[in-house]
Design goal:
Elements (H helix, E strand, L loop, with lengths): L15 H20 L9 H5 L3 E11 L11 H13 L7 E5 L6 H12 L4 E5 L11 E11 L24 H9 L6 H4 L5 H20 L3 H9 L7
Parallel strand pairs: 2-3
Antiparallel strand pairs: 1-4, 2-4
Helix pairs in contact: 7-8
């Protein structure tokens, strides 16, 4: 019978100096890791500050009654209203509300709304956001959403010494701001839009088809005139 005996392996002793250095290194690294903020995956205050924001703004314009008490809009009233709309650049994305205070004649109210409709401005309906206007007067509110963007880039020192290959606090700030500025109506960044993109595509396709049919039939002038305001004999 043959017996096999394994030779016991001996581990060489660790030098005392190396052991002390290893213990001190572990203690230092443990202290440093305890001081570093834990990466939770949630947005830090710096990341939140680097995001675009949307602010609701309301502008007002008082439409006073006429000196002679008439219900029609005088030239001076129309000029003042037009100056307000032009100076505030009222246009796409803005919504107008009218506060009549309950004392504005229906005919005058209709003239104001017609004045706004002729300029393609969206009317949101009656609105009361402040003190009621005087009797015979009306207050026009312009509601718009303003885009507030942070300053990019911001190369300030990082608040943490994270070394796990994570993005910096301001990573992608410039890209996010650029995409936000490409939005025609900042309100869509908050509530989105209810526009049916499929319906828009269908209308665009129909317009192209109509143009192709009229051009192939030698009658493309009528379609182009409807787009650019031209007419027979226009040069």
């Amino acid at each position: 019978m043959t017996f096999f005996m394994e030779k016991a392996m001996t581990v060489p002793p660790i030098p005392r100096g190396a052991l002390i250095r290893a213990v001190m290194l572990c203690a230092v690294m443990g202290h440093v890791s305890a001081c570093l903020p834990a990466h939770s995956g949630m947005a830090t205050p710096a990341e939140v500050a680097a995001r675009p924001g949307v602010t609701l703004v309301r502008l007002t314009h008082d439409i006073t009654g006429e000196a002679d008490g008439s219900e029609t809009l005088s030239e001076a009233t129309q000029a003042a209203l037009q100056h307000f709309l032009t100076s505030q650049r009222v246009g796409y994305g803005d919504v107008l509300y009218l506060d009549t205070g309950g004392g504005l004649p229906i005919a005058r109210q209709a003239m104001i709304l017609e004045f706004l409709a002729d300029r393609g401005i969206r009317y949101g309906g009656p609105g009361t956001y402040g003190p009621a206007p005087e009797t015979g007067a009306a207050r026009l509110y312009v509601e718009r959403y303003r885009l507030d963007t942070p300053a990019c880039p911001n190369w300030q020192a990082e608040l943490s010494a994270e070394r796990s290959n994570n993005e910096s606090a301001h990573f992608g700030c410039a890209t996010t701001v650029t995409l936000a500025r490409m939005t025609a109506n900042p309100h869509h960044l908050v509530a989105g839009t209810a526009t049916d993109s499929a319906a828009v595509d269908v209308r665009a396709a129909r317009a192209i088809t109509t143009l192709q049919q009229e051009l192939s039939g030698g009658n493309g002038g009528s379609f182009l005139s409807s787009l650019f305001g031209g007419g027979p004999g226009r040069r």
